[in-house]
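Hi W., the adenosine monophosphate complex you wanted:
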Amino acid sequence: MDILVCIKRIPDISGQITLNESGTNIDDSSLGHTTSAHEECAVELAIQTAAATGGTVTVLTLGPAEAVEQLRAAVGVGANDGILIEADNPEAFGPEDIASIIGDVIRDRAEEGQNFDLVLLGNDAADTGDFQVPIRLAYDLEYPVLTGIQTLSATGGSGGSGAIEAHGIGPAGTEAFSLELPAVIAVQEGGIDPRYPSITGRMKAKKARIAEYVAPEPGAGNPRIGLELPPEKASAVTILGEGRDAAGALVDILEEIGVIRS
Amino acid sequence: MTLVYVETDESGQVQLTSAEALTFARTNADVLAGSVLEAAVIGSLTESAHKQLAALGVDRIHHLESADLEAYSAAAWAQALVDIAPETGTVLASGTPRGMELMTHVAVRIGERMAANVVAADDEGLLRQVLGGAAFERLRLGGDLQVLTVAGHACNPEETTPTTPEVLTHSPEAAEEDLRTRVLRTEVETTDGNDTTGLTQARAVVGAGRGVGSENGFGEVLELVDHLGGALGVSRVVTGLGWRPHSEQVGQTGSRITPDVYIACGISGAIQHMAGIEGAKTLIAINTDEESTMVQRADYAIIGDLHEVVGAVNEEIRNRRG
Ligand SMILES: Cc1cc2nc3c(=O)[nH]c(=O)nc-3n(C[C@H](O)[C@H](O)[C@H](O)COP(=O)(O)OP(=O)(O)OC[C@H]3O[C@@H](n4cnc5c(N)ncnc54)[C@H](O)[C@@H]3O)c2cc1C
Ligand SMILES: Nc1ncnc2c1ncn2[C@@H]1O[C@H](COP(=O)(O)O)[C@@H](O)[C@H]1O
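Structure:
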């Protein structure tokens, strides 16, 4: 089974965020970059599924030239090759644009004889969290789509003829689905542990084959007017004390809240 | 008009998140062009859900029930909502996985944009959470019909002068194509701990992060969980290292919790973790680092080694019990 995984370059944030001068985006100039946890899991699922069925994994991103770093990282853990759709102003693209441009590249590849049986994405991007690109892409391609999927078990071979069973957490328990391929699946963290790159992986990553496209002008565009940060709250913490001596004060508070079992 | 997709639980009660979404729709009616409030319930409509919807100010209930909609299929359920959606106004749901999925399908099917995790609406447009709640995006959707999801805790469910909603019953048939993604079977987890309901419903959650030190370092925190009849929640470092299962993870890519008290032990307070605990009423930090975000954001904190502090807390609880 040949699998395409769509990953997005995002700033690696853990502490304070600052905005750029125009307030339209995060200032990521001093930040490292990564991809979201959901997408790391999607890459891992793709690698395992391709290995089980005898197939390939291609990773794709729409982003700035630097996003090649994220494609290489995915090759480093086992993807075969990458596709960069270069856009120097990624924030000008809305989820409709991203989905339709990815759809065009998939059709373009099909014309060249490369048919992806399965397209995996993250459930939601860690930065914009639009929850839309996978579903919009599926409609664009006229493929069935599932979201929130944690594990896959392939039941078919390549050539778009097989089927796949997918599992995700629903409101009442783990839900199982069976899909005819080709299909689009949005993956959620939790069902599988992404692997770390090996030494040989890192070597492979350097030599990764990356096909390049240039993104067309955005159509629908991004509906964003600007970003805002929540007002900084002054710390209002009451320090109860240090070490074991403060235990009594904490138990007093828990008693007051009424959460200690009698 | 505003149409709200309402989720009910196994006992047929309206989910808290849906009650929030209905309140959001009602209190923002002027901006959302929603002077009439409609609710759509798929599956059974219990007497108690009917009463809850009346108390929440719903003018009309669409009750959709049919063989084709019995098992969940996002495409089929979304089409059923599209068929009853107003021409202008708003269609919304709460920002649950189902809500997100259905609203995106609805938006694509009617050719509109969608905004996820909205927290406020005014004449300038919508405000929604991005970066797991660490920032907000202001945006304008345009179009005749706005499609959106309301972020959890964007507002508190609020009852109003009760209405006497009329019930319109529909039994939609789905296109074959829309049934391709139907749920085949649901396995209710009992043993392997994939169940997160304990964590999301608990009144007291004890959080454990890297500071616990190792897989074998959970003794004290688990005892405290037991004293509180609560649940254990962990950081992604803990699940990433394989110390605890992902079902216990709290944060942007884990559970979002709403306990009366959250006691974060050895957790630094990265934004992705904080995203999951915004709904906690009282936040207590136990950490060696007074400067850590978790301590700075907490209501109360104890500075020190968590094993020592939590051990002493357990001892104190045992002593007071006598
Ligand atoms: C896309 C994305 C999604 C993410 N989603 C999540 C998520 O859902 N949930 C989540 O939690 N994280 C998430 N993260 C990871 C997040 O950025 C942090 O890396 C993580 O929360 C840190 O975990 P921690 O606080 O346990 O570890 P650390 O940041 O290493 O902090 C350990 C803390 O323990 C304290 N400490 C050390 N020893 C002791 C001791 N003996 N006693 C008391 N205190 C001690 C230290 O002072 C420190 O504050 C995500 C990251 C990304 C990029
Ligand atoms: N610019 C992009 N390039 C590649 N994949 C993307 C891009 N934007 C979004 N995606 C994929 O779509 C998923 C959902 O994104 P979103 O709809 O923006 O929340 C992400 O987890 C990615 O897998």
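Residues A 14, 34, 36-37, 126; B 209-211, 235-238, 249-254, 266-268, 270, 272-273, 276, 286-289, 292, 305-306 surround flavin-adenine dinucleotide (ligand 1) (CB under 6 Å).

W.
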